[in-house]
Amino acid sequence: MTSTQVMTLTYTALKLAFELGAPLLFATLIVGLVISIFQAATQINEMTLSFIPKLLATGIVLVFAGPWMLHSLTDFLRTLLLSIPQLAS
Asked: Is the sign of the CA dihedral 27, 32, 33, 35 positive or negative?
């Protein structure tokens, strides 16, 4: 296994990790920003007010983007497992 193969594999794995994490992080970021603006405007400082909507947004994103995420991950793993004989030589 050459260093080029290792770097390509590492790049692909990191790119996939960012692609899978981005929808969850962006949804949580947007909901957190909206809740923060609401809390600043109303001066309500309740921790559950920010936690529960973020949890719900994450769940909703997982419901809608979950099949795509699972398909992307299984494609990557299938490609990786099928390339093991080529990488070993």
From this structure: positive
* Per-residue DSSP letter, 43: T
In 1-89, which residue ranges form alpha helices assigned H by DSSP?
3-42, 47-82, 84-88
pLDDT tens per residue across span 25-39? 999 999 999 999 998
Residue 31 burial (C-beta neighbours within 10 Å; 0-12, 13-18, 19+): buried
> What's 38's DSSP letter?
H
- Token pair 């909206």 is found at 34
pTM metric for this prediction: 0.79
Per the rule left: phi > 0, alpha: psi between -120 and 50, beta: everything else, 45 is beta
